[in-house]
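[step 3/7] inverse_fold.run input=structure_tokens len=278
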């Protein structure tokens, strides 16, 4: 049975792949883009099954308006994929205030705007599914990715609190944590700070050289396979809280979680020692 989806950030990357696959299999997609004409080829091929609106998720009023129009026009939306976002890359002092604010406004606040806009509609229709695109750096980070990772940690924290709030309304959520995939993540979808020579002989420089020498071998994820795995996950019940996709993502998240758990266990006695004596 066909379903109806709302997907943000569909011009390229995972959003574009999801939209293509869903339309090809006969589903309806309400897609948002930032630039007019970005999906003209798909609109020509699939007609009324593709609903398109211009949206920049940083503007909460626009998010509410577009989401409301999508639910009004399509009557029911089964799955919402909050995908709009990009990466800001640079050491903490290499990125400027405006870049940081734009990153947080788009990846974190924009994703929260989407959640707050769709939840009342999903609640009113008796339930639905939200898929939030996070990242493997929602569980850790690398040099030059601190601000980007902060937005992903932030949105995961938001949903950790929100998931139990909306579970009783039949709304389920999955946080997707992909590894490095061959999208336009590191090129047209990324912003960069102004590199400083002082970091050349630090972990920042080491990481940059590793990325430069690795080439495509670092980006093992197939965007179409990632998109298909995301689609398949929406048929699972109960919904998986997290979906870790990619061998690099699995290894990175596994190391991040086990090392934090080990450090926590080492502090168990200290943690208990700070309470009042009875």
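[step 3/7] decode complete -> sequence:
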């Amino acid at each position: 049975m066909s379903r109806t989806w709302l997907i943000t950030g569909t011009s390229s990357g995972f959003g574009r792949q999801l939209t293509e696959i869903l339309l090809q299999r006969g589903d309806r997609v309400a897609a948002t883009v930032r630039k007019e004409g970005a999906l003209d080829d798909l609109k020509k091929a699939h007609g009324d099954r593709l609903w398109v609106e211009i949206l920049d998720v940083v503007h909460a009023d626009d998010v509410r308006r577009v989401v409301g129009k999508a639910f009004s026009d399509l009557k029911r939306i089964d799955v919402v994929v909050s995908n709009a976002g990009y990466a800001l890359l640079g050491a903490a002092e290499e990125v400027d205030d405006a870049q940081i604010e734009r990153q947080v406004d788009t990846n974190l606040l924009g994703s929260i705007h989407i959640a707050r806009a769709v939840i009342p509609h999903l609640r009113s229709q008796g339930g639905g599914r939200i898929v939030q695109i996070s990242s493997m750096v929602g569980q850790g980070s690398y040099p030059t990715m601190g601000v980007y990772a902060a937005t992903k940690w932030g949105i995961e924290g938001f949903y950790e609190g929100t998931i139990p709030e909306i579970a009783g309304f039949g709304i389920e959520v999955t946080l997707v944590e992909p590894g490095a995939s061959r999208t336009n993540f590191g090129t047209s979808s990324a912003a960069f700070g102004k590199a400083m020579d002082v970091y050349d002989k630090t972990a920042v420089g080491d990481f940059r050289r590793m990325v430069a020498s690795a080439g495509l071998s670092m980006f093992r994820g197939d965007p179409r396979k990632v998109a298909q795995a995301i689609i398949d996950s929406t048929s699972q019940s109960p919904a998986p809280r997290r979906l870790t996709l990619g061998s690099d993502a699995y290894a990175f998240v596994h190391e991040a979680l086990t090392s934090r758990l080990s450090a926590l266990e080492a502090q168990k006695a200290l943690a208990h020692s700070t309470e009042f004596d009875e």
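[step 4/7] annotate
Residues 17 and 225 are 9 Å apart (CA to CA).
The longest helix spans residues 97-124.
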